Amino acid sequence: MSVTKKFLYVNRKAPYGTIYALESLEVVLIGAAFEQDVSLAFLDDGVFQLTKGQDTKGIGVKNFSPTFRALGDYEVTKLYIEQESLDERGLTKDDLQEIVYEDEDDDWAEKPSIRVVNRAEMAAIMADQDVVLSF
């Protein structure tokens, strides 16, 4: 009997300027394709990865932010955003992309994947994981 381990990918870096954000997203998609129990946490400058309206023309790199909307197709439905990180950067939940998944247990109703949690809740989520990978 195999036991499914819970994997949490922690994103702390801004979306552009380093490879961390894109690499994390690619690893998440690969893990999900192999049916891992995958969730993501966004803290510090990592919250910028999910902001709406990213325009990367001025820096000459591909905007990969729309790819987050495909996570539901890979059954990645738990995206945790730390409230304090949003507050410290002058952001609110309204500044974030809408990312949803279709809940097969609820007649395929679309439900939000993003959950804004406070620092204490984030610590509890991290403690509940089998594997935590930080990017």
Outline:
The protein has 135 residues and is of the alpha/beta class.
Strand content: 15-25%
State the separation between the terminal residues, measured CA to CA. 31 Å
**How is the biggest beta sheet arranged?**
5 strands, parallel
CATH class: Alpha Beta
Instruction: Average the pLDDT over all residues and give the rounded result.
Output: 94
Order of strands, main sheet, comes to 6-3-2-1-7
What CATH architecture would you give? 3-Layer(aba) Sandwich
Oligomeric nature of the chains: single chain
CATH superfamily: DsrEFH-like
Overall tally of domains: 1
Structure description:
The protein starts with 5 loop residues before the first strand and ends with a strand. The chain has one domain: 3-Layer(aba) Sandwich (Hypothetical Protein Ychn, Chain: A), CATH 3.40.1260.10. The model has no long low-confidence stretch (mean pLDDT 94). With 135 residues, it is an alpha/beta fold. The strands form two sheets. Strands 6-3-2-1-7 form a five-stranded parallel beta sheet. The protein has a two-stranded antiparallel sheet with strand order 4-5. A hairpin with a 5-residue loop joins β4 and β5. Helices cover 21% and strands 24% of the residues. The protein contains three helices and seven strands.
